[in-house]
Amino acid sequence: MKKYTLNLDANNYVLSIAHTPSDNIELDLSCYDLTYLSAYRFVDGSLILDEVKLEELKSQEHETANTEQITELKKQLADTDYQAIKYAEGWLTEEEYTPIKAQREALREQIRSLEGR
Amino acid sequence: MPKIIRNGITYGGSSGGGGGGTDSGSITFDLLWTNASPTSNFTEQTIKLDLTGYTAVYFYYKFLANVTDGAYGGRLFPINNVNFSIAEGYFDANNLVVRHGSLKSDSIGFSNGIKNGSTNNSAIIPYKIYGVK
């Protein structure tokens, strides 16, 4: 087994695992799925997965992904604002604006859905 | 022309020869810390490192935790109890990843990562940290 240096929080949850000149903890990292590293606690020389914390982290990640997607959709909506203004000012015909309007409404619908409205 | 030594390997020129000048010194990079789980998110934390004797720290980092391609970067900061910021754009200018931190002679503090303005600890993952002298 290789040796590592662990950085732990006050409750012994793992913040990071590293190699340093003072590695002192033997671990077989191939035994662990470290995608959610901070869901592990270091107890008696082993990493123990805290299922409750794991679910919290997954939930946070889902929320973050939602927020990012909403931001991206709002940007896409804003990118077509100028076309709505051109239509309002009479520079686009009804025929030209119809597909843009449908696209904007589809974006709004996705945003509402992600926001749970 | 200065010599650059990284993990015992010397880069750059030396005194005399084609350069024709005097040797103005050398730069040494000592590998102090390597992230053993660089695909994991990196939460806010302070890493204890003895940086005594070093004048600067070189960070080698991944833009995002889950990248497997060439999205890596590096930054050099002096050690003088100051805050630092690493910001990188990826794909296009609308995608920005940021990590703030602070450097002291005995530790390096990292704040939570930020991706496109929101807290996201998959942003700017420290991969290797070198002491520079």
Structural write-up:
The complex is a heterodimer of chains A (117) and B (133). By secondary structure, chain A is α+β, with helices and mostly antiparallel strands. Chain A has 3 helices and 5 strands, in the order βββββααα. Chain A has helices at 51-79, 81-88, 94-114, and strands spanning 2-8, 14-19, 25-27, 40-43, 46-49. In chain A, strands 2-1-3 form a 3-stranded antiparallel sheet, with no helix packed on it. In chain A, strands 4-5 form a two-stranded antiparallel ribbon. The longest helix of chain A has 29 residues, at 51-79. By secondary structure, chain B is an all-beta fold. Chain B has no helices and 11 strands. Chain B has strands at residues 3-6, 9-12, 26-35, 45-48, 56-64, 72-78, 83-90, 92-103, 107-115, 118-119, 123-132. In chain B, strands 2-1-3-11-5-6 form a 6-stranded mixed sheet, with no helix packed on it. In chain B, strands 4, 7, 8, 9 and 10 form a 5-stranded antiparallel sheet that branches. In chain B, 30% of the residues are buried. Classes of the chains: A alpha+beta (117), B mainly beta (133). At the A-B interface, strand 1, strand 2 and helix 1 of A face strand 3, strand 4 and strand 10 of B.
